[in-house]
Amino acid sequence: MSVAAAESVDDDLWSAIGDPTRRRMLDLLLIEGDGTATSLAQRLPVTRQAVAKHLGVLDRAGLVRGTPAGREKRYRVDDAQLARAVAQLSSVGAAWDARLQRIKRIAEAIQRTQQD
Amino acid sequence: MSVAAAESVDDDLWSAIGDPTRRRMLDLLLIEGDGTATSLAQRLPVTRQAVAKHLGVLDRAGLVRGTPAGREKRYRVDDAQLARAVAQLSSVGAAWDARLQRIKRIAEAIQRTQQD
DNA sequence: GCAACGTGCAACCAATGGTTGCGCTAGCGC
DNA sequence: GCGCTAGCGCAACCATTGGTTGCACGTTGC
């Protein structure tokens, strides 16, 4: 397996979900269905402006979409895009897992030959 | 499921594997067995010093261990710790996946009731 | 009409990923 | 033994980014 294969992940997507605050925001949006910068900030240990910036990042990554509604702007998760992100997460995990398994098998094989 | 449950990930571990350069370093170390700051820098688009800093981060996160060997310092992956990291990756993915599934089921249920 | 709420923009600060440059020590060739 | 080279560590510096405060502008409700 090539190195490039494991790093075939979309870097923007990964960096979007790499931030702990943004992960919690996605959690909240999934749980509550939607939310605004202000409503999310109330449930997070950061200011509204910080949340707004994060929403901008998530928006540019396509993970959320915001629609203006009067004086507020409601955001909701783009299911398909988040599913893509989850797939990439597990793909990296699977790649490492496979290599760890292979190393383990090799180690066991060596041990067997030494015990002969 | 609580928000805290999904964020039970060790933040240091996550931020360690959150950086794309560090992920590629882990890939290289897994493939080649071990490596030094210089040897890794040759295969990466960054300088030796940048690699050295990343190795420091990975070391503090417990993902790699370096042992001095003459004039060079060889690093190798800590299998157990990387396995832990992989587990946390998939745990976050699984949490989101579950919520997406639930949303999908609810949407389908609504559609069924509307078609009645 | 006006007070209050929600948003967006700008300036600023700290942390971090990256660079260059320098000095030091361990091995190798002679 | 002596010098040269390879590899490392440290320090200074720069750009990006996650965070803050402050302010100005549109929307809503009384």
TrEMBL record, chains A, B:
One of its GO terms (molecular function) is DNA-binding transcription factor activity. It comes from the Bacteria. InterPro entries: ArsR-like_HTH, HTH_ArsR_DNA-bd_dom, WH-like_DNA-bd_sf, WH_DNA-bd_sf. It holds the Pfam family HTH_20. Residues 2-97 form the HTH arsR-type domain. PANTHER family: SLL0088 PROTEIN (PTHR38600:SF2), TRANSCRIPTIONAL REGULATORY PROTEIN (PTHR38600). NCBIfam families: HTH_metalloreg (NF033788). This is Metalloregulator ArsR/SmtB family transcription factor. It comes from Microbispora catharanthi.
